[in-house]
Write a structure and sequence with these properties.
By secondary structure, this protein is of the alpha/beta class. It is built from nine helices and five strands; from the N terminus they run βαβααααββαααβα. Helix 6 packs across helix 7. It is found in: Cytoplasm.
Amino acid sequence: MSKFVVGLTGGIGSGKTTVANLFGELGIDLVDADVVSREVVAKGTKGLTEIAHHFGPSVLLENGELNRAALREKIFNDPSAREWLNNLLHPLIRTEMLTQLQNATSAYAILVVPLLFENGLDRLVNCTLVVDISPELQIKRTTERDAVDAQQVKNIIASQASRDEKLSKADDVIDNRGDISALKEKVAALHNKYIKLAAQT
């Protein structure tokens, strides 16, 4: 891929989306795996048809869209179900993300992926940026934001690469314990760095 791509990741509740949106405000095209993963299972897609066929009608809402909560329930306690779903979705998501990255028109593009390292998607990018906070803060922010219990958040954290593993693989790290103005400064500095790197590729 000729486009210079930064892979942005971080655990649940770390503030990935906030950081991505700050890059977006600087005019950078974002390709968000969470958005793409919704697009490939939207109503009428091949992805949704196969999921409903495999898991049954309980994973569909009355309007025919995917019932994410019901699907999440089924896969979090069943590794084989999760594996089946991943095998279906990963190729669909990967293809769509690559298409969107190729169509990006900004100086560089950002690929936002919660499981960047876990799914080997760091191979698709030129450098990686990890948004980092402590697990305690992850649990606090996620329980407040999503109104879920702490144990569910702990399970999600446990299913992701460890904090140390992410940090050891990261080219750049944003510590997101501070306030939004500190975050904006860090993003602006990295933005200038990535523009220079993109110009060299």
